[in-house]
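User: Thanks for the earlier help. One more: CAHM3 protein. Can you show the sequence and predicted structure together?

Assistant: Of course, both are below.
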Amino acid sequence: MDRFRMIFQYFQSNTESVMNGICGLLALASVKMYTSFDFSCPCLPRYNTAYGLGIMFIPPIALFLCGLILNRQSLVMLEEWRRPKGRREKDLAVIRYMCSSIMQRAMVAPVVWIIVTLLDGKCLICAFSGSVDPENFVGFANISPVQVHQLLAK
């Protein structure tokens, strides 16, 4: 029991280090999730953009919300904001500092996800495959516009 108390006191005294560790673990989990996820483009002109951009931006939003929820300072900032005025006025500089600290930590995993997807390039190619000008390519002269869009989507 004594060891448990010592470990608990260590985590209480080093909350910033623990939060940085949690953010690092979220970033590592985001990379692991992306590498285990096998991206395959639907190859349909209407769905490529939505699918590619959805894979690129929806998981980072979820990771950002997880980072906000897991941050202990979020509750402290909310308590400071909701605290009645009393004798001491609310210090907006403290709230601004805490908010920026929370946002910075919560943005680590989403930024890592977006960087990994951009370095991989499959989502980006899938999303913008239909927006390429077919005039830049040779051999599209005898093909109808519908077939050109289907070919570009593939």
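User: Great, one quick takeaway?

Assistant: The radius of gyration is 23 Å.
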